[in-house]
Automatic annotation (TrEMBL), chains A, B:
Its cofactor is Zn(2+). It comes from Actinotalea lenta. This is Alcohol dehydrogenase catalytic domain-containing protein. Residues 25-135 form the Alcohol dehydrogenase-like N-terminal domain. Coiled coil: none annotated.
Length: 346, 346
């Protein structure tokens, strides 16, 4: 099959590799219908050291089950499924508590298991991981895009709002106008936030943010951006801050704009290990810190039903569709900010 | 009046100072019945630089209202009241959201307003700050001790459990066997925690911890302590970690023992500003960080009613009672760990 392999910063290739096969009796093989490129794929695209054996890429996929292992009972050949970006058994104590990305028998797609920017995928823990899409019928492109968005990007934005416990009537600040930040705006709006301040400076993106519920857009960054948000919130700050970037300046903005007792919820993978959390940043004002890799699986059944019912359409984050052979160009377009998020159609 | 003043590390004196008087029409003057020394008073006792003018000490008090300003309507001369360690108007948006220690018109006792290890106290924002004790009658010493414990220590432990959202059946780890840590054990037990692991090594203290609900005591610290707690929790870690120390090793233990999706709730004032919060500490496992100065006022009416009804008796943290002239010895006894917490009777 054709698959995406990265050999170093900026060096993405599409190559012919062996088809995946059932390794464990709990595996399934899924034939790709739509996959995509993630903002987080740009981190290795910027910084991956030369890697002679290459790293197989991609972790977002919808497709059709082609084969299942002998222990798989909940999905079968021909089922149309969502593949969340982490696999999990959906039964261990941690999954039962809703944190599937830390499943005791789970893991992530990529080197080892195999990446999902490829024609076929091996999915471990298939019974726990895969969620069938019922009554798909002849889904149009927009529906497929929205279903694909549930494998990571939208439900990562949703996770930010969920962990911040966004309540009706609250003031929410979203930091970052990438596809996850915009998804966080949509999720906060759906939870009933009254004021949603989007911190971002790319007009084509913040326009989608406004369409999805942002009431204010703040282009300023740093102290200037913090002052602007504080002013917009009557001097009190935001109840919830959804941080969808992962760099230290975004974290600093987050604790600058959070109100006493408020919650900072991070879903941008932190590109730092240490950060201010003492009296001067979080402690004095009882500000809370939450977030992590989204346990997409926990939210998937409900979100699939909303997409199929036409209530939820997060697929608008995809503004370009390519074929598998054009994946290297897709990385370049996202890195150049010519594309917000690139979908791969098979 | 006689009052406690600190002039530098280890230099605590009881001196005659002018009686406080009404400054703002919202003030009240309270005559002390019981006050005490806080574990947090030991931080300046260790490290305060020479201070020629001295720093007035103390922030925990129960007493009788002696005089009120012209704008005070909710308390009157003769009322028996609890003075929470922070004053607040109890009406601003932040107070209404339950975070009185960040009240827009509030502040802390000590230099400026005056400390509470003294015969009389000026209490700003008296209507918002003071909580009357109804039906006190001829309260015995134990009841007075328990009421005093509500001004800070017990409700600080309670705040830790509250912000960690401790639920019935959960596993809780409490770090620190000081008076706040033991209070956190009691609060976790009252919220229905099933397993309460107390990390501490002072047997006389951990004995009170066991009496209050600790099911396990772990004397080990660092990696060894973390490994012990993880083992005691079936390899999963604790749902809630109540951190009542404030030093970096305690924080490191906290993120070591918290389970995926769990909450670290800090009430020990952090003696650090930066700490690990990235992928390797909090983020990968969706661990959350909460806590700060306890908004005692938010919890006070309910707790007073529980003490008066005899359901709650946190006063056992006081294991020594002294008069005002002996306060310097009280600091020394707490610093030497000869006393857990020292009460001052007037």
């Amino acid at each position: 099959m054709r698959a995406t392999v990265m050999y170093g910063a900026g060096d993405v290739r599409v190559e012919t590799v062996p088809d995946p096969s059932i390794v464990e009796p709990t595996d399934a093989i899924v034939r790709s219908v739509r996959a995509c490129i993630c903002g987080s794929d740009l981190h290795p695209y910027h910084s991956l050291q030369q890697l002679p054996q290459g790293a197989t890429m991609g972790h977002e996929l919808i497709g059709v089950v082609e084969e299942v292992g002998s222990a798989v009972t909940k999905v079968a050949k021909g089922d149309f499924v969502i593949v969340p970006f982490a696999f999990s058994d959906n039964t261990c104590p941690i999954c039962q508590e809703g944190f599937h990305t830390a499943c005791l028998h789970g893991g992530f797609f990529g080197p080892g298991v195999g990446g999902l920017q490829a024609e076929l995928a091996r999915v471990p823990q298939a019974d726990g991981t895969l969620v069938k899409v019922p009554d798909l019928g002849d889904a149009d492109d927009a529906t497929l895009a929205s279903l694909l968005a549930l494998s990571d990007v939208y439900l990562t934005g949703y996770h930010a709002a969920h962990m911040a416990d966004v309540q009706p009537g609250q003031i929410v600040t979203v930091i970052g106008d990438g596809a996850v930040g915009l998804s966080a705006v949509l999720a906060a709006k759906r939870r009933g936030a009254e004021q949603i301040i989007l911190m971002g400076r790319h007009e084509s993106r913040t326009d989608l943010g406004r369409e999805w519920g942002a009431t204010d857009v703040v282009a300023e960054r740093g102290d200037e951006g913090v002052a602007k948000v504080v002013e917009l919130t009557g001097g009190l700050g935001a109840h919830a801050v959804l941080e969808a970037v992962g760099h230290m300046p975004a974290y600093q903005q987050a604790y600058g704009v959070v109100r006493p007792g408020g919650i900072i919820s991070r879903v941008g993978v932190p590109q730092y290990e240490e950060a201010p959390v003492g009296f001067g940043s979080l402690f004095a004002k009882n500000a809370r810190l939450a977030g992590g890799p989204a346990p997409v699986r926990a939210y998937l059944e409900e979100a699939v039903a909303q997409v199929v019912a036409g209530e939820l359409a997060p697929g608008k984050v995809f503004d370009r569709t390519i074929g598998i052979e054009d994946v290297p160009d897709g990385y370049q377009a996202m890195d150049d900010r010519e594309a917000l998020k690139v979908m791969i159609a098979f």
